[in-house]
TrEMBL record:
SUPFAM superfamilies: Jann2411-like. PANTHER family: BLL6575 PROTEIN. Residues 72-113 form the Zinc finger CGNR domain. Coiled coil: none annotated. It comes from Pollutimonas thiosulfatoxidans. Pfam families: zf-CGNR. It comes from the Bacteria. This is Zinc finger CGNR domain-containing protein.
Length: 118
């Protein structure tokens, strides 16, 4: 079940998150992608730990402001603890990663079918 969507007027304590956002120093940087196309990214400045947490805090803040909480889903694999933001058109993504949990599920289903066939 996805986290509840914040409602208008719903008071949230954002002070702790703001502390990380204020400590996060970054600068815009031009980079070339693998095809040589220019893209604008941001590079962290300052303390490495604060910079790492600052980037996470910024992603959380963006999610709180712009995100649709109904698209936040928990990976369906029983051994996985990850959550993801479902950006698929059909909104039917099941796995945090098809290459990891999706394939683990497929392999388990294949083993189950193979045992049943013997
Ligand atoms: Zn997973």
């Amino acid at each position: 079940m996805p986290p509840a969507q914040p409602k208008q007027g719903d008071a949230r304590d954002v002070d702790a998150l703001n502390e990380y956002l204020h400590a996060y120093l970054s600068a815009p940087q031009l980079q070339c992608d693998s095809e040589g196309k220019l893209m604008l990214t941001r590079t962290a400045r300052g303390d490495a730990i604060v910079s790492m947490l600052g980037a996470v805090a910024e992603a959380v803040a963006q999610l709180l402001v712009e995100g649709d909480f109904t698209l936040i889903k928990q990976c369906e694999h029983p051994d996985c603890i990850l959550w993801f933001y479902d950006r698929t058109k059909a909104r039917k993504r099941w796995w945090c990663s098809m290459a990891l949990c999706g394939n683990r599920h497929k392999a388990a289903q294949f083993r189950k079918r193979s045992r049943a066939a013997v």
